[in-house]
Write a structure and sequence with these properties.
The chain has 303 residues and is α+β, with helices and mostly antiparallel strands. The protein is built from five helices and 16 strands. It has helices at residues 2-11, 14-32, 233-241, 246-271, 283-299; strands at 37-45, 50-52, 62-71, 75-81, 84-86, 97-99, 105-107, 116-124, 129-139, 146-151, 163-170, 178-183, 194-197, 202-207, 216-221, 226-231. The strands form four sheets. Strands 1-9-8-3-4-5 form a six-stranded mixed beta sheet, with helices on one face. Strands 10-11-14-13 form a four-stranded antiparallel beta sheet, covered by helices on one side. A three-stranded antiparallel beta sheet has the order 2-7-6, with no helix packed on it. It is elongated and about 120 Å long.
């Protein structure tokens, strides 16, 4: 590998060979004798851009700069050698980098896999080096959350005019997000009548007829974006009130079933004597009584 590199360097023009040797010497020197190392947190959004700023202390006159990606893979991104900028290095950022005159590096458009650590090595006219490490975190844009309303079944202790609702808010496949709720048109959220569950993802509210126009917003956010959805839970309360619950159905079905069973028992008791299977000596009398009943019905037809 070393001889291949030597052959390639021999084939290059003299000034290119000097620049490459200087670059490798610079990297080895910085790795062995770092003067200063600082760190910074940078956040970006998928599809957007981010600016990695090269900073150094006052009086540091920069002559060369080297930008690298340290993690998840170590790659050379951009260099500045005596005013000559070079960004066409074969890395995962090829075609998405731009080096500005102040030696800051811009990455665009960002992808979800661009998160990682970056470093910039600055060298002044006196040969001193300054290394700065930056931590980039790329987040997805927060989509509009989905809000579902669940109505609790009213109990005996609850006022029939009160509606207790649970508002569930969620977004799919998004990490590092926070949930919050806001009551539209008010500043005081009224914590006595509300409760939060599942880290703010579920909100419980108690509503009355005076809260017909009350709306709630579910706000979902991450460090770089946010989105929200507004819902009026009272509309679901009215919709649910128009439905018959299973308790109401039982109150109707059970009495009707008992009445039909009672009618069946009375019919069996009444027509039982007219059927066969009576004891000896009494069967004739019962049959005569049944026959007389039939005869009376046939002798008195309806007019």
């Amino acid at each position: 590998m070393f001889w291949i590199l030597v052959v390639k360097l021999v084939c290059l023009p003299l000034w290119r060979r000097m620049a490459v040797w200087f670059l490798w010497s610079l990297l080895l020197w910085a790795a062995a004798f770092p003067v200063a190392v600082t760190g910074a947190q940078v956040q970006g959004q998928v599809g957007g851009s981010v600016l990695l700023v090269a900073e150094c202390h006052p009086g540091f006159q920069v002559r060369e700069a080297v930008w690298r990606s340290l993690w998840p893979s170590e790659e050379l991104l951009a260099t500045s050698f005596r005013g000559s900028l070079e960004i066409l290095y074969h890395s995962r950022f090829l075609g998405r980098t731009q080096m500005h005159s102040n030696l800051s590096l811009e990455l665009r458009p960002l992808k979800s896999g661009d998160s990682g650590n970056f470093s910039v090595l600055l060298v002044d006219t006196g040969g001193r080096t300054w290394t700065q490490i930056l931590h980039l975190k790329v987040y997805d844009a927060v989509p509009r959350p989905v809000v579902q309303v669940f109505i609790a079944v009213s109990g005996d202790a609850q006022s029939p005019k009160t509606c207790q609702a649970f508002l569930s808010c969620w977004v799919p496949n998004i990490s590092d997000i926070t949930y919050s709720w806001q009551q539209e048109g008010t500043v005081d959220f009224g914590t006595k009548l509300h409760g939060l569950f599942m880290d703010g993802q579920v909100l419980m509210v108690s509503l009355g007829p005076e809260d017909k126009g009350m709306a709630y917003s579910c706000i979902v956010s991450n460090p770089v974006s946010w989105n929200s959805t507004v819902v009026n839970p009272w509309e679901s309360c009215n919709h649910e009130a128009g439905k018959s619950s299973y308790k109401d159905v039982l109150l109707v079905v059970v009495p009707v079933s008992l009445l039909l069973i009672l009618v069946g028992l009375l019919s069996a008791w009444h027509w039982g004597p007219c059927s066969g299977g009576s004891p000896a000596g009494t069967g004739g009398k019962k049959k005569d009584a049944c026959a007389n009943g039939v005869a009376l019905e046939t002798e008195n037809p309806l007019v």
